[in-house]
Amino acid sequence: MRRGVVVAWMLLALALTPPCARAASGDGPVAGRVTLVDLGSGACVPCKMMQPVLEAVSARYGGRAAVVFIDIRKEPDAAKAYGIRLIPTQVFFGRDGKEAWRHEGYLDEPGIAAVLDRLLAE
C-alpha cells in the first residue's frame, strides 16, 4: 500500500476518535475505551488486506471503540512490547486496558465485530 494511503487511513482513524480518547503516544490501548490495536506493515500482503477492514471497523465503532494501527517497520519496539510473532496481529483490549483477546493473521470485519461487540457488552 502506498505511504500516502496509509497516512490518509491513519488520519481518518484519528479524526473518528475524539481527542480526549486518543492514547498519548497513539500506539496503545486508549484509556477507558475498548481498543483494537492492529500491528502490521505496509509491505505485508495480509496487512494491506486489513486496511479496508480497519477503515470500516473504525467508521462503524468510531464513537464506541478505538482502532489503532502500528506499523512495526517504523516502530520496531512495538513488536517487542506486544510480543509479535507474525503480522498482522490484532490485539483487543477491554475498557480496563487489559488484553482481552489476540489474533494472528488476517481477520475479517465480522470476526472483529464479534470481539468488539462482546467487549463493549461487558
Short synopsis of the structure:
This protein is an alpha+beta fold.
Task: Characterise the protein shown here.
This protein has 4 helices and 4 strands; from the N terminus they run H-E-H-E-H-E-E-H. 42% of the residues lie in helices and 20% in strands. It has a single domain, classed as Glutaredoxin (3-Layer(aba) Sandwich). Strand 1, helix 2 and strand 2 form a beta-alpha-beta unit. It is globular, with a radius of gyration of 13 Å. The protein has 122 residues and is α+β, with helices and mostly antiparallel strands.
Domains, number: 1
Biggest β-sheet: count, sense, barrel? Answer: 4 strands, mixed
Low-confidence stretches at least 5 residues in length (pLDDT < 50)? 5-25
* N- to C-terminal distance: 35 Å
Please state the CA-atom Rg, rounded to the nearest Å.
Answer: 13 Å
Helix run count: 4
Q: How many extended strands?
A: 4
Large-scale geometry = globular
The SS-based structural class is alpha+beta
Helix content: 40-55%
Assembly annotation? single chain
Order of helices and strands: HEHEHEEH
For CATH, the homologous superfamily is named as Glutaredoxin
